[in-house]
Amino acid sequence: MLSRLLSNDFPRNRVLAVLLVALLVALALTPFVFPGVKALNVAAKVLVFTVLVASFDLLLGYTGIVSFAHTMFFGIGAYGVAIAFTRLGAGWGALALGVGAALALSFALALAIGLFSLRVRAIFFSMITLAFAAAFQTLASQLSEFTGGEDGLTFKVPEVLSPSHEFSGTPLFGVTLDGRLLCYYLLFATALVLVLALLRIVNSPFGRVLQAIRENPFRAEALGYRTVMHRILANCLAAAVAAAVGALNALWLRYTGPDTSLSFSIMLDILLIVVIGGMGTMYGAIIGGTLYVMAQNYLQTLMGTVSAAAGEAGLPLIPSLFHPDRWLLWLGVLFILSVYFFPTGIVGKLRGHVR
Predict the structure, then answer these.
(1) Which positions ≥6 away from 57 have C-beta within 8 Å?
(2) How many CB atoms lie under 10 A from the CB of residue 102?
(3) Taking the domains of the chain in order of start, what are their residue ranges?
(4) What fold is seen in the domain 2-351?
(5) pLDDT at 285
């Protein structure tokens, strides 16, 4: 049963297996073990970035395609849900229509980009996707009548997913059973299904062909595989998954704007997580996404604690060096160290020591 779920792609390292199980349990029990709004928001962001990075790794790690349009598809999913709820009201029909329209548009755009761009050299494809992403971001900012412009769209979700909706007046283990909790577990279950689906794709015959194309496209072509069509299909699948997780992110935030769904900084985060976790492995998205999101949200607080303790102890330089305002500097240092000590990513390094 487990081999089927994981598509026979086991961690192949005890430390990695323990980390993955621990993260799965922690994310499943976050509302009860780590109470508080911030912990729940961090866990939700981990789930979103795990799926988003895993879908991008289908392109970069498994197919060898560098696309900068991934945030565009993420934004299409988010805006699809936001516009549907804004125009049609907070109903399940609006949610289904918004998600369906976003998936269809993402698939069609990815197909068009692939047909016109994936026949050229890799660098030209990357530049074309970057142009598409920039154009879509500009379009979303200017069509304020539909997208809310720079301010974005704030909307209501179905009542059963709203924090004001309580299923029981009696808390469970001190946690209120409300719509926010249901929304989190909807996000958790969908993220788990999408990651397992991507794991199945990359370990299928189709996934093996993608890896062959990544290693040597000319040899794959000589063996009879239509490399361009395989690349296009991989691009469409990755776009659809990115749109789906974008819709989930909008549903969780109950807001969609350029900064939360179309910003190029999101694309940079995706690239950093892929490098940290390891390319060509879905498990890298889980490990890298968790570490990066945790660092983004808690590194500044940790540095503030260290700076205050050093100041009380009268230590020189350390309070200034670990000032919370310098958290981006230390995040960069941590990234450089991770690349130096884990050149193939954390998962790649662990899998290199099979135990």
Answers:
(1) 274, 279, 280, 281, 282, 284, 285
(2) 29
(3) 2-351
(4) ABC transporter involved in vitamin B12 uptake, BtuC (1.10.3470)
(5) 93
